[in-house]
Amino acid sequence: MSFRISYAPPADDTLAKMRGGESFRDEMVRTLGMEPYGHASSAVKRERDRREATVAGAIVLYYVSRSVLTVTVVRLVPLP
User: Fold this and answer.
1) What residue intervals traverse the membrane (predicted)?
2) Which is it for the CA torsion 29, 30, 32, 33, positive or negative?
3) pLDDT of 79 above 90
4) Residue 25, CA distances (Å) to 48, 66, 80 in order
5) Which of 17, 38, 50, 71 holds its CA 20 to 30 A away from the CA of 8?
6) CA neighbor of 42 nearest in space, from 65, 66, 59
């Protein structure tokens, strides 16, 4: 089962400025898109569906919607 990856406007703006944005998107699909509760992610403030993970050199804050199989990235912080 795979999850659709969606980007909220602030995360999408950051992604547009990132070098290697397309490879980052591919890595998101390969990792969190396949297993949003895996990939060494952790729950934020004890909320199971509010998560944080590091993917392809960026910190990703996202929400998981199991009912519609969507991972929504709300914040994206590229590492220097």
Assistant:
1) 55-77
2) positive
3) no
4) 23, 20, 18
5) 38
6) 59
